[in-house]
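As described in the Methods, two query proteins were run sequentially through the folding procedure within a single session, without resetting any intermediate state between them. The first query and its resulting structure tokens are shown here.
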Amino acid sequence: MLRAILNLIPIAHGKINIKANKIAYVPQRLPAVSGIPISVFESVSTGLLDGKITLFSKKTNKEKVFQALKQVQIDDLAVKSLAKLSGGQLRRVMIAKALVAKPDLLLLDEPTAGLDFNSQKRLFSTLQELKKSGVTILLITHELGGLSALVDRAVVLDRKAKKNISYFGKLPIPIELDPESHHSEELKAKVSESVLGLNS
């Protein structure tokens, strides 16, 4: 779905209407960075490339990079090498790189993959601020976890039919569709309690 929105693959039928002026995409797979002599600042700067080699000379560009780093709470890592980052830090670098061009629409593929609890909390805080600022966020995930509080609408795709939508609406997802949308037993229990009206 994300690749279709980005016009990287053709859609089989229907149409996609996008009102955003700028779209940013953060893939699930983290880049291989071992041995690459590039800093966090330099990596995020590449999000501003527009065919003109004026990247590091403009003061405004430097300000945009630091603003993006601050948004994802890694401005203190600006001069650190990508090769020395943790998985959570590297994912936030990828998000900063997407944010530096000021997108209206942010596409995230499995943003919590490989993140520990603290990194997920920081990611939630970042996405919460982006949402408040008016950025539309579309994320693909198998486990919402702590991100569920950000979700206005959920779409559950039918795993078997591949072409059908099993659910479209607000959380919680109906219990009969829960196995299609969650892997975690703890999350299943929480959704079950919510559906049954057991949560306050």
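Immediately afterward, the second query was submitted; its sequence and tokens are:
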Amino acid sequence: MISGIGVDTVDVCRFNQWCEYSYTRLSRIFSTQEIDYCLSSHALSAQRFAVRFAAREAFFKALSSAYPDHTVPFLTVCRKSRIIKENGRPIFIFDWSCIHQLLYDKIFPTVHVSLTHTQTSATVFVIIERRLQ
């Protein structure tokens, strides 16, 4: 059952300077693996940072939709999430233990994510799905 939906689009130009930020500053939002991946190509770093930031924004919106009576700070969402690639497919990973009190059924939801980016924009669509018992 779909319990939350979120979408976000960002302008890539907002992230042009992020490759010059310190690891400490970037690690407030991204995992070490994501930072390394984003910085591995100077030409693509802004697009990579942008789409990962948009993913956190879209997930934050989906989470707020799924659990409207509870708020989770955006930076908590950032620190507890990351994107990995599995067989070329993006996987959004979230540490649900940080909000275990919201999970009444103690079954962790599934997060579906779709990412797309160009040189100028990045868009992400997220669906949070809870399994019926």
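The chain has one domain: 2-129. We note this only descriptively and draw no conclusion about the first query from it.
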